[in-house]
Amino acid sequence: MTSSLQSICILRLSAIGDVCHAVAAIQAIQKQHPQAKVTWIIGKVEYQLLKDLPGVEFIIFEKSKGKQAYTQLKHDLGDRKFDVLLHMQVALRANWAARYINAKQKIGFDWGRAKELHALFTNSRIRAQQEPHVLEGFFAFAEKVGVPSEAINHLTWNIPVSDQDIEFAESVLPNNERHIVIAPAASKAERNWLAERYAAIADYADEQGFKVSLCGGPGPLDRSIGNDIIAASNCSIQDLIGKTSLKQMLAVLNRASLVIAPDTGPAHMAVTQHTPVLGLYAHSNPKRTGPYLYQDYVCNVYHKHIQQQKGKPAEQLKWGTRAKGKNLMADITIEMAKHNFDRLVKDFSL
Question: Contact, 118 vs 98, CB < 8 A?
Answer without folding.
Answer: no
